[in-house]
Amino acid sequence: MNLKKYTQEFGYNLKLAYPIILAMLGHTIVGIVDNIMVGKIGATELAAASLANSFVFIAISVGVGFSTAITPLIASADAENDVVKGRNIFVNGVFLCTLLGIMLFSILYISKPFIDYMKQPAEVTQMAKPFLDVVALSLIPLVIYQGFKQFADGKSQTKYSMHATLIANLINIIFNYLLIYGVWIFPEMGMMGAAYGTLISRVAILIYFVWVLNRLEIFLPYFSKISLKELNKKTSKYIASIGIPSSMQSLFEVALFTGAVWISGMLGTEAQAANQIALSMASMTFMFASGLSVAAMIRVGNQKGLKNYAMMETVARSIMLMTFFLYCGFAVFFILFHNYIPLLFLNNSDATQVAMNQEVINIAGKLLLIAAIFQISDGIQVTALGALRGLQDVNLPMVITFVSYWLIGFPLCIYLALYTNLQAEGIWYGLLAGLTSAAIFSYLRFHYMAKKYIANTIKV
Q: How many CB atoms lie within 10 A of CB 117?
């Protein structure tokens, strides 16, 4: 393999991806900050926030996954310099995201009683319910924001979401502090303060992002004189034909990790808190691959619009190779610091929680060692899926993710955690198996599709 052919693309890949990575890291940091601040209150509160967020993460995966359909369509229209087509996709895409955000909140609100049937500790369940109500409401502005963000990403204007996320993070930290601890005129709300901080920050990010895009000349042809008459069934149906399978791909993966949260809850509060610590760290590093995945969508979508399929294959593989190198570095970091990272999430000055905290630290350290390896597979599978979305190939990849996560990964999680002595470690070995399967099959699917496009061009 000619490495230089791929490594010479690293610079442009990074230029396109780094604002997306920072923006996605910002979203993840909102959750990590919440976990750190809530964890300082107590391990039970951390477990409750983890349980509530597990429901919200499922809904977010559907909303974000659906919105990704907008990016390759806009990227392809942008390469063709077709503003009319791009505007049509933009207007209908944001409208669909708005409807989806409202629907996801409604579903979560109605399904809240199911928490009682999940065999979680009673004190955890009681705290989780009101937390879920508030964070679920934040889905509406978040999913609408995603519609605007994916549009801007498709236009290769990735830095504005980075700015918006940085502002949202600052707002989240400030309001978390004010509302959790009751500073100044604000009430002391404990863990509920973190929920309201998240809601306020997500409303703010939507307002700021729309304001910024509306002021930029490059977006004026898309924002001027928008009318409901521009909504049409044909375009909405086409976006949905890509968005629904894409959302299912995201759902299958996030639901797998949510299942891991639920299984860890069956093992006890310590296991659930440890699982949340390891998951928080893995989620943070995952954002790098997610950003590179969006870069793959944009670049593959551009090259597909230009019908330059050989270059399309090269840029996609360059992003996957870049991801592999990056995640080997993260693996080394996790291995070196697996015993120290958990200390960030717990209050070790509270003498009444020393024993519980030590157990959490021991379990979390072992989970981070497994996470060091599985994140390599996770990075490859998400960038391969990004490349496939750039090709607008979503149906078979949806099947691949279902088989990998729910016929391979999740059954192993259940068996190894509940029926062997591995317990919490068994959950993460199951995750490793599912993600590795997804990485292998997603890469093979892209290889097949790329060669097919290139062969058809040669025939013509």
A: 8
